[in-house]
Amino acid sequence: MKKLSSVFIFLFSVLTTLQAQKVKEHGLMLEDYEYPYPVSFYHFNAQQHEYKMAYMYIQPKNDNGKTVTLLHGKNFNGAYWETTIDALTKEGFNVLVPDQMGFGKSSKPEYFQYTFQQLAENTKGLIDSLGIKKTTILGHSMGGMLATRFSLMYPDVTKNLVLVNPIGLEDWKLKVPYQSVNDWYKNEIGKTYEDIKSYQKESYYAGEWNEDYAKWAKLLAGWTINKDYDRIAWNAALTYDMVFTQPVVYEFSEISVPTLLIIGTRDRTALGKNLVSKEVKAGMGLYDQLGKTTQKKIPNAKLVEIPNTGHLPHIEVFEKFIHPLLDYLKK
């Protein structure tokens, strides 16, 4: 029995070492993680508390007078826009890249009512503080839901709306049993790198899994071994609740600004797929259909489909993503 116990302890030690080699611990505000461009902070008051919003604002020497604001997805932060920033600034665009509340280097509140309206208001405050009068609003994944809400609230500030594999193109409440914030928290608190990787592979985030995707999964996993992970997990649970309970799909017809949809058609991202039957699951997150359906709902929207591409076109097939984007922005 002692021998078996020793073997178990040894194997556990090996597995723990391998996990540690794979994942590096990160601080609550990613203090130890360097972004591709200098980070500044916008300080503001919301819900009777002071918060700060991290952002990168890149102004090229060959300024063409136009600004693009890039909004990240739920499992990411502004740093994953690096190649997009490089390409846009090369063409003379000013680029604003915020980390939303609860994400990246921005505040992780203990108590906060997350709404897309609140995040849009925060983002508008940042834009105003920089003296930007009009900007293209580009949102990926959850950022697409936020970008949609922003364009509905602030059409005079929104020059164009660009949605890159946005979530929220369907109402998951119609198919998925309700999950409380506590439920989302319990699901989040036990996550490991392998769990994150498995979810992203199942949703076809990527083609063949490689370091281009793994680096972002490892960044998330680096929080799971932080002593303050309960705070991060709680914020993640609150934003899951926001995404699940605040659909924008019913308001696409109200969008009044020029809109471009860039859709990787292999994507199968959908919130709550693990909570439904195989039959229901098979009908969720079908981006090869959702892109076309959404284009019909948004007045005068343009659709660019990228075949055999998953949830991250700007990482998986950058050239196929950036060329139609630049063509659209230069018109």
From TrEMBL:
InterPro entries on file: AB_hydrolase_1, AB_hydrolase_fold, AB_hydrolase_sf, Epox_hydrolase-like
GO molecular function: hydrolase activity
Cited Gene3D superfamilies: alpha/beta hydrolase
AB hydrolase-1 domain: residues covered: 67-316
Keyword entries, A-Z: Hydrolase, Signal
Signal sequence extent: 1-20
Pfam families: Abhydrolase_1
Ubl conjugation in keyword set: no
PANTHER family: HYDROLASE, PUTATIVE (AFU_ORTHOLOGUE AFUA_2G14860)-RELATED, MONOACYLGLYCEROL LIPASE
Name under which the protein is recorded: Alpha/beta fold hydrolase
